[in-house]
TrEMBL record:
Coiled-coil regions listed in the entry: none
Gene3D superfamilies: Aspartate Aminotransferase, domain 1 (3.90.1150.10), Type I PLP-dependent aspartate aminotransferase-like (Major domain) (3.40.640.10)
Domain of life according to the entry: Archaea
One GO MF term attached to the UniProt entry: pyridoxal phosphate binding
GO biological process: cysteine biosynthetic process via cystathionine; transsulfuration
Region span, Disordered: 1-22, 51-71
Family membership noted in the UniProt record: Belongs to the trans-sulfuration enzymes family.
GO CC term (a single one): cytoplasm
A Pfam family the protein falls into: Cys_Met_Meta_PP
Native source organism of the sequence: Candidatus Halobonum tyrrellensis G22
Necessary cofactors: pyridoxal 5'-phosphate
Stated name of the protein: Cystathionine synthase/lyase
PANTHER family: CYSTATHIONINE GAMMA-LYASE, TRANS-SULFURATION ENZYME FAMILY MEMBER
Length: 404
């Protein structure tokens, strides 16, 4: 664990900023960053500090902690760990990915304008249009792979460019460096939702992003057993403002949830290696399959931003989508008939999941609009887990045979 008493002076964080993950490889940082054996007992693992308040030695004279919404030792260790993974100086944990996204929006003022992708995560689209438009923020949704369109959308009052990459479900890859440059030319912040790639594969701060956002629910937790969010930045002033809203709004995670995510991040590198290997193998197999019209995976040469992905990412991730040669109901039959792949929303756990965007995650979009956006009736999205890839192939083969 960190030296709890210097929680607020950022000394660990400054080491992280100077040499990335404290000068060690990410595999080592994943296991050790933010986590020292407990000074009192030698316990290797960060304890779950199930605790709301802390004894003070005199009024205001405390040992780094006063109240657990403001700070909790289990959370401190998680925040230091996440910051190190992203090569950033400061981490903040939240009770969900939406909690972290909300906190970035708290930085803005009425009248501010935001530019983001037209295929941004559904919950992000909802908080933008159904919550913050009511607070007099305005949003433009554009194709963020088209930098001309982004330049046209950015205005003098643009305060934030919100980037996701790869995107859901078509796995478009956005150029973080180029989009951060456009944001900065206009004095706007650039925030990147790094949930799909994870810091093992992509570190947006290195490419000029100001803030990285995560749903810890996905790969960082990694076991489909916890909901959480995080923000990482290198900018002390920005971190202080994020910390103010974290404490004031109060969407903070429980110590138990922090413990679960810390347990997850230790194995992030080994899990991601297998996710990438399996997804890459499955993508190639699907591309050659008679039942499949098209595969969307950044690791395929047929992917429109394959070269950018190869440059920006250290691996192509575990998410892919494909179009089956069939109707909406045939695609529904495919996703209903698998056994290795569980029919469920969400992603990033060790188990493989399958879903049909047109009937599930993206069902709220009117059909015409949905199809125009490239989300066909036959589109199937999979979160490729860490089971044996041959079992995945056999499972899909059987489902195709039954349904098509
Ligand atoms: C899941 C997800 C979120 C929201 O996170 P929650 O933990 O569900 O609140 C945000 N962005 C992306 C890309 C996601 O996949």
């Amino acid at each position: 664990m960190n030296d709890r008493s210097d929680e607020t002076d950022g000394s660990d964080a400054e080491n992280a900023r100077d040499d990335g993950t404290n000068g060690v490889h990410i595999e080592t940082a994943a296991i050790h960053a933010g986590q020292e054996p407990d000074g009192a007992t030698g316990a290797l693992m960060t304890p779950i500090y199930a605790n709301s308040t802390y004894e003070q030695d005199g009024p205001g004279d405390h040992r780094g902690y006063e109240y657990s919404r403001t700070g909790n030792p289990t959370r401190t260790d998680l925040e230091a760990n996440l910051a190190a993974l992203e090569g950033g100086a400061f981490g903040r944990a939240f009770s969900s990915g939406m909690g972290s996204i909300n906190t970035v929006l708290n930085l803005l003022e009425a009248g501010d304008h935001v530019v983001t992708g037209d295929d941004v995560y559904g919950g992000t689209h909802r908080i933008f249009t159904q919550v913050y438009e009511e607070y007099d923020l305005s949003f433009d949704f554009v194709d963020t792979t088209d930098h001309g369109a982004v330049r046209d959308a950015v205005r003098d009052d643009t305060a934030l460019v919100w980037v996701e990459t790869p995107t859901n479900p078509l796995m478009r890859v956005n150029d973080i460096g180029a989009l951060a440059d456009i944001a900065h030319e206009h004095g706007a912040l650039c925030a990147v939702d790094n949930t799909f790639a994870t810091p093992y594969l992509q570190r947006p701060l290195e490419r000029g992003a100001d803030i990285v956002s995560h749903s810890l629910t996905k790969y960082l937790g990694g076991h489909s057993d916890v909901v959480g969010g995080a923000l990482v930045t290198d900018d002390a002033e920005l971190d202080e403002r994020l910390g103010f809203y974290q404490n004031s709004v109060g969407a903070t995670p429980s110590p138990f949830d922090c413990f679960l995510v810390l347990r997850g991040t230790k194995t992030l590198p080994v899990r991601m290696d297998r996710h990438c290997e399996n997804a890459s193998e499955l993508a190639r197999w699907l591309e050659g399959h008679d039942a499949v019209d098209r595969v969307y995976y950044p690791g395929l040469e047929s992917h429109p931003q394959h070269d950018l992905a190869a440059d920006q990412m250290d691996g192509f991730g575990g998410m892919l989508s494909f179009e089956v040669d069939g109707t909406l109901s045939q695609a529904s039959d495919v996703v209903s008939n698998t056994e290795v792949f569980t029919l469920a929303e969400s992603l990033g756990g060790v188990e493989s999941l399958i879903e049909q965007p047109a009937a599930m995650t993206h069902a709220a979009i009117p059909r015409e609009e949905r199809v125009a956006a490239g989300l066909s009736d036959g589109l199937v999205r999979v979160s490729v887990g860490v089971e044996h890839v041959d079992d995945m192939k056999a499972d899909l083969d059987a489902a195709f045979d039954d349904a098509l």
